[in-house]
Design goal:
globular; five-stranded antiparallel sheet
Length: about 130
């Protein structure tokens, strides 16, 4: 007798992926907004959800709740930071630079992807 084992694999979103996900403030759903995935909420538990930055609401911060969590089944992938405009990437980079997110896992990867994409677009614009 042979036994077939089916394994369900979950795709884990990379830091820097732009998603649409509900935003919760004090336990209340304030609506679906665009956010950038900063990484997994718990690195050992991929189904535990993601740390996200609702970049359309301003600089990363816990006080006005622009940083939050998205449950694993909620985010809908929209694009990546590489597909954003040069102006948006510059604004995001300045906001990340001014706020110390070094304690959050995925911060370095997101900052690197934003800087690299912005530099590429700037070089194209300047004809270099």
């Amino acid at each position: 007798m042979t036994v077939a084992i089916a394994s369900a694999t979950q795709t884990v979103l990379e830091p820097g992926t732009v998603v649409r996900t509900p935003r919760y403030d004090e336990g209340k759903n304030t609506g679906v907004r665009r956010a950038i995935v900063l990484g997994l909420w718990n690195e050992e538990e991929p189904k535990g959800g993601y740390k996200v930055w609702f970049y359309t609401l301003g600089a990363p911060s816990f006080a006005p709740r622009t940083l939050g969590m998205a449950f694993a089944n909620e985010p809908i992938v929209v694009s990546t930071v590489e597909e954003m405009s040069e102006r948006t990437l510059l604004r995001l980079y300045v906001q990340l630079r001014d706020y110390n997110l070094r304690s959050l896992a995925g911060y370095g990867a997101v900052e690197h992807r934003i800087r690299k994409a912005g530099s590429r677009l700037r070089a194209i614009r300047l004809g270099q």
